[in-house]
Amino acid sequence: MNAKERYLWDLTGYLIAREVLSSGELAAANEAVDRQRDRMQVGDDNLGARDSHSLRGTGRPTMHGLLQWEPPYCEPFRQMLVHPAVVQRLNVMCGTGFRLDHGPLLISGVKGTEGLTMHGAGEPHRPHVAYHHQNGQTYCGGVTVSWQLADVNPGDGGFTCVPGSHKSGFPMPPGVRTCDDDMGTVVQPSMRAGDVLFFMDGAQTHGTRPWQSERPRRSVLYKYASRTSIRGGPARDLAPPEIYWGEDLVEGMTPEQRAVMFGPYSNHGSEVPFLAVDEHGNVCIER
Amino acid sequence: MGAKRYVMSAEERYFFDLNGYLVVRNALTAEEVAECNAAVDHFAELVSTRSVDTGGLAGGSSVLKGTQGRKELTGMLGWPAPYRAPFRRLLIHPVVVSRLNEMSGKGFRLDHGPLLIGAEAGAEGHRLHGAGEPFSQSVWYHQQNGRMYCRGVTVAWQLADVHKGDGGFCIVPGSHKTREPTPAGVRSVDDPMDLVVQPVMTAGDVLFFAETATHGALPWKGGHERRSVLYKYASRAAARATGRHFTPETRWGTWVRDLTPEQKAVLYGPGVHTGRNFPRLDSDGEKTRVV
Fold it and tell me: Tell me: the pLDDT tens digits for A73-118?
């Protein structure tokens, strides 16, 4: 990761490495997806667009489990997992010992596929995905690496972000979240098949524009985390106290005691009970 | 003790943000302290003493060296009833919940511990560790728009008095925010630059400290036994301990057996207590390899 890339990454919160995959590697990945097309799942319409007018459209097609596909179809995606272009940059972005938190996920799209509301930001601070720079070193708790298996031209839609938003100290305006009034802050980078996009997942404001091209969208997203940050993936299933610590240790604990024994993860689904202290000084589960 | 004790006051926020530690006085009654001590006494045979033969925790410091190691006892939360009960109460004591909700955010969790640290007169100290520089992702302290975010907070319950000059826990106030490397003399306390503070506490007090603050222990000089029980908390999505599902197989399933060592290396679970053989990756741009 050279000085120019570090500057871009620190300044904007995303980075595109160009022409990383050869035409042969690209063809192998696309063939694998074609062969597994029956696994494609299409979400409900406007699941991601939510209350936005600008982002409305049909459901988003996705595929999971790429690393577990039968050989040779898993191979292109296993190679991407620790591709030199990824390792070199994530060692700088997240620090050595970075890890796959969850994914990979193939995101597709046909003309009219909905977008996804903008999410993530520097404010409020979220420790597990936050960005920090100190004495010449950068650090980011969560980085998504998105391999492009198809071109993304200007106006096609797909990935969008608000450059610099990982350093914002103010809340995101509602119009930016929905893209109904984005104040000119939202950009949609152009990419070629074989390029790889790095973006700060959670620290930076990002989302998706509805897909406008006749050619399907194809991006494969790997969700990495630093050595000490956890977002989701297997962590969610491993978090219950009986699993994380073992039955013997937590046997007989009250619900309030169990609440602090959940293993680490972002609590994306709000399964982890939070504690509060009531007016009498009693610890209770927050309602 | 009134309910106001279970709210982190503006003064406490100021003190913790400024110094990186906080002592809440008289959090336990004398009876509660006695119950904890009786449980520890019951399991006295399980107490281990660290060796000082290979350098110990003093880390070569002439000031911190001692004639014996510190005493340690673990496993309190899993002890049979009734001995585990007082330590399970400490786990989510209202004084702790009210402060950690502010320091680490709601959803804070026990990362590892509790660990009882004991010492008799002459026990060695512990070389100072932690600091704002270099940046430590696992225990990072951050303040933004009126809120604190401390990824690692240790809560140390005092089961015995700590008088001035007794030794035990010590800290460099403000060091969780430093951006310059800690001088070697401060780490070893051989040249502390008048920066190292040893808080005075009484049995029943509870100490909170930011793990990223420079802290350690001075040799124990008290005429009585040191007894402090440390609970290591983390914010919701931070990990220091690696837990029981750290390896790729235990975390992701048996399908990972077909992967290369390099591919497996990024499928380990989170945490920094990885052991020395943990595989890290590097690349020259052409090939990825385990280093």
Answer: 999 999 999 999 999 999 999 999 999 999 999 999 999 999 999 9
Residues of A in contact with B266 (CB under 8 A): 81-82, 98-100, 224
Tokens at B175, concatenated: 């060091």
Least Cα distance to A67 among B278, B257, B285 occurs for B257
SS3 label, residue A233: coil
Mean pLDDT along residues B49-64:
91
Residue B45 CB coordination number (10 Å): 5
Compute the mean pLDDT over every residue in chain A, rounded to the nearest whole number.
96
Residue A20: CB atoms within 10 A of its CB come to 18
Please list every residue in chain A whose beta carbon sits closer than 8 Å to the beta carbon of residue B285. Answer: 84-85, 88
Buried b (16+ CB within 10 A) or exposed e, A118-135: bebbbeebbbbbbbbeee
Bridge partner residues of B208 (DSSP): B22, B155
Q: Which amino acid is at A192?
A: R
- Nearest Cα neighbor of B246 from B227, B219, B212, B273 is B273
Among chain B residues, CA nearest to A142: B237
Q: Which residues of A touch B267 (CB under 8 A)?
A: 99-100
Mutate to test the interface with A, among B137, B247, B256 (most CBs of A within 10 A): B137
| Closest CA of chain B from A131, distance in Å | 10
pLDDT of residue A81: 97
ipTM computed for the complex: 0.94
Nearest by CB to residue B179, choosing from A87, A134, A244, is A134
Query: Is the pTM of the predicted complex or chain greater than 0.90?
Result: yes
Which of A139, A254, A265 lies nearest to residue B137, judging by beta carbons?
A: A139
Instruction: Name the residue facing A84 among B237, B252, B283 (closest C-beta).
Output: B283
Tokens of B255: 């399908």
pLDDT interval class at B53 (50, 70, 90): confident
Count of CB atoms situated within 10 Å of the CB of B116: 25
Indicate the Cα dihedral angle B63, B65, B68, B74, nearest 10°: 90
Q: For residue B29, report the phi and psi dihedrals to the nearest 5 degrees.
A: -80, 165
Long-range contacts of B32-39 (CB under 8 A, 24+ apart): B32/B86, B32/B89, B32/B204, B33/B159, B33/B203, B33/B204, B35/B86, B36/B86, B36/B87, B36/B90, B36/B157, B36/B159, B36/B229, B37/B159, B37/B227, B39/B76, B39/B79, B39/B82, B39/B83, B39/B84, B39/B86, B39/B87
**How confident is the model over B136-194, as pLDDT tens digits?**
999 999 999 999 999 999 999 999 999 999 999 999 999 999 999 999 999 999 999 99
pLDDT reading at B3 higher than 80: no
